[in-house]
Amino acid sequence: MIKVTVYITLKKDVLDPQGKAIHVALNNMGFDKINGVRQGKLIEINLDTKDFDEAKEQVKKMSEQLLTNPIIEDFTIELE
Amino acid sequence: MDVSLIIFPGANCDKDTSLAIKHITGKHPKHVWYKETTLPKSDLVILPGGFSHGDYLRSGAIAAKAPIIKDLIKKSADGIYVLGICNGFQILTECGLLQGSLIKNNSLKFVSRNVRLRVIRNDTIFTSNFKENEDVNMPIAHHDGNFYIDDNSLKKIEEEGRVAFRYIENNAKHSPYNPNGSLNDIAGVYNENFKILGLMPHPERAIDKITGGDHGAKIFESMFHSLSQ
User: Fold this and answer.
1) Residue B82 — φ and ψ, nearest 5°?
2) Considering just the CA atoms, what is the radius of gyration of chain B in Å?
3) Which of the residues A50, A75, B47, B49 could staple to B84 if both were Cys, CB 3.0 to 4.6 A apart?
4) What digits encode the pLDDT tens for the residues B110-142?
5) B86 is catalytic
6) How close, in Å, is residue A49 to chain B by CA atoms?
7) For residue A29, what pLDDT band results from cuts at 50, 70 and 90?
8) Structural domains of chain A, ranges and CATH numbers in brackets
9) pLDDT tier for residue B176 given thresholds of 50, 70 and 90
């Protein structure tokens, strides 16, 4: 079995009000060296295969077709 | 006019929309469960508001992969008319029938109130009963209504006159008048051939003066008059 992790982040140009809210909250808690906060998503998928290339290919398709919206999000895939 | 209404698990405006259609046309639309694979004969298909699949992953993302949507995409290529209201709008952007995306309101709050809207053009089947640049009131109720699209596509949408409705200043004390941060105050857009409309406001909740106004009824009347001829 291969465990695949998909990291989903908002594209740079897309405003992230949630990240901004977190930024403000952290500032209010006394963390004053923050230069920016962006919030994303992490999705873990376990695949019944031993073939890393196949796993990567499959999850890339999943990410493009459902897990992310290419208009607003980018993604990276990590296999282990 | 044959109207079909696609019902997803988590939809909550299907009954209101069905009632609005009945109110204007005299008959209820056909209700089509999302697991169906073929739409019945329809001139117009409506995707109602709500929270399909609990808004999991992204609003409308999972509904956009429903079996019935494949047939909707096919039939819309053949020229069927499509209206997506609120969550229906989100589903239309997620399945690619409309451009852009509805992201989280910039206030991070669920906003439920009346908004003032400008009807940008009255030469589509959805707006023929409005005056040109008519200003109307309709309710909104959403958390993800912030219309976003890349600069080039936004420019193209504007140049092609594909903005259907814009949020405009009103006399109420709501500030800001743009309730969600939408680019160019966009509340609704058309596709390239003006046969598909998605909008965040709820016209089906504004069809009677005794329940908060009837400006939304004009959308249903426009469609009825245009498609019954």
Assistant:
1) -135, 135
2) 16
3) B47
4) 999 999 999 999 999 999 999 989 999 999 999
5) yes
6) 25
7) very high
8) 2-79 (3.30.1280.10)
9) confident
Query: Given this model, what pLDDT does residue B172 score?
Result: 66
Torsion sign, CA atoms B81, B87, B91, B97:
positive
- β-sheet bridge partners, residue A77: A6
Catalytic residue among B94, B95, B143, B204: B204
Does A42 reach chain B within 8 Å, measured CB to CB?
no
Structure tokens given for B210: 């005794």
User: What is the least distance, in Å, from the CA of B165 to any CA of chain A?
Assistant: 22
A14 interfacial to chain B (CB closer than 8 Å): yes
Segment B3-25 shows an average pLDDT of 96
In chain B, domain spans: 3-228
**Given the residues B86, B94, B142, B221, the one annotated as active site:** B86
Helix, strand, coil % (nearest 5) of chain A?
35, 30, 35
CATH class of B3-228: alpha beta
Is A77 an 8 Å CB contact of chain B?
no
State whether residue B90 is helix, strand or coil.
helix
The residues, any chain, with a CB within 8 Å of residue A2's CB and separated by 6 or more, are A46, A47, A49, A50, A52, A55, A79, A80
The answer to whether residue B174 is catalytic is no
Reported as a single tens digit per residue, the pLDDT across A36-60 is 999 999 999 999 999 999 999 999 9
**Most distant pair of Cα atoms in chain A: their distance:** 48
Largest distance between two CA atoms of chain B: 47
Whole-Å CA distances, B158 to A21, B183, B184, B227: 31, 11, 9, 26
